[in-house]
């Protein structure tokens, strides 16, 4: 997986220069679900970012010089970040083993480790809103990567890099989860 990703990056251009000495945030696609499987098959084999693919991406980013890599998504759990990600097959100790201790997980369903949300203005004023409040993990970074899972989606038809970003506005503000 890592070799294939490296080959894809070679086709993209100078990813090394983009991430060298930078703080990289990877928005994963971990599906806001309290279920651990779909019809008995683990989420990472069906509808979420696979932990092996995610770890391969992180190890490449570190090899390319990233200072740290934060993996985030809004998850339906109030558990600590590491524990919340474990339900999707993500093991922080394993990630840090292959990433020289530079990995961190962050559940962005609410404020998390921050004291306030960041306000992100929509260029041109937007159609639905002129600005969105988001967890600061998405703006206090040098590079943001959308790690989508290719799959079908009931309203979007297909899930890809842009659709994955729909998960950035926190459900604690814009959903039915009212705990900030």
- The whole-number mean of residue pLDDT values reads 87
Give the termini distance in whole angstroms: 37 Å
As a whole number of angstroms, the C-alpha radius of gyration is: 16 Å
Number of helical regions: 7
Pairing-aware structural class of the strands and helices? alpha/beta
Number of strands: 10
The low-pLDDT segments are none
Strand order of the largest sheet: 5-4-1-8
Would you summarize the structure shown here?
By secondary structure, the protein is α/β, with parallel strands linked by helices. 28% of the residues lie in helices and 21% in strands. The protein is built from 7 helices and 10 strands.
Give descriptors for this structure.
180 residues, alpha/beta, 4-stranded parallel β-sheet, two-stranded antiparallel sheet, 28% helix, globular
Write a structural description.
By secondary structure, this protein is of the alpha/beta class. Helices cover 28% and strands 21% of the residues. It contains 7 helices and 10 strands. The strands form 4 sheets. A 4-stranded parallel sheet has the order 5-4-1-8. A hairpin with a 2-residue loop joins strand 2 and strand 3. The N and C termini lie far apart (37 Å). The model has no long low-confidence stretch (mean pLDDT 87).
């Amino acid at each position: 997986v890592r070799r294939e990703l490296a080959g894809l990056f070679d086709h993209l251009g100078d990813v090394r220069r983009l991430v060298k000495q930078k703080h990289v945030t990877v928005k994963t696609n971990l599906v806001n679900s309290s279920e651990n499987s779909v019809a008995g098959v683990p989420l990472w084999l069906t509808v979420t970012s696979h932990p092996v693919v995610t770890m391969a991406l992180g190890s490449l980013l570190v090899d390319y010089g990233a200072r740290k890599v934060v993996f985030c998504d809004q998850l339906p759990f109030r558990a600590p970040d590491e524990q919340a990600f474990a339900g999707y097959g993500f093991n922080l100790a394993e990630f840090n083993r292959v990433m020289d201790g530079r990995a961190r997980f962050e559940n962005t369903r609410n404020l998390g480790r921050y004291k306030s949300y960041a306000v992100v203005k929509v260029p041109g004023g937007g159609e639905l809103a002129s600005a969105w409040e988001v967890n600061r993990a998405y703006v206090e970074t040098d590079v943001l990567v959308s790690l989508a899972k290719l799959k079908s989606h009931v309203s979007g038809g297909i899930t890809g890099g842009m659709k994955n970003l729909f998960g950035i506005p926190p459900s604690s503000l814009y959903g039915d989860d009212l705990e900030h």
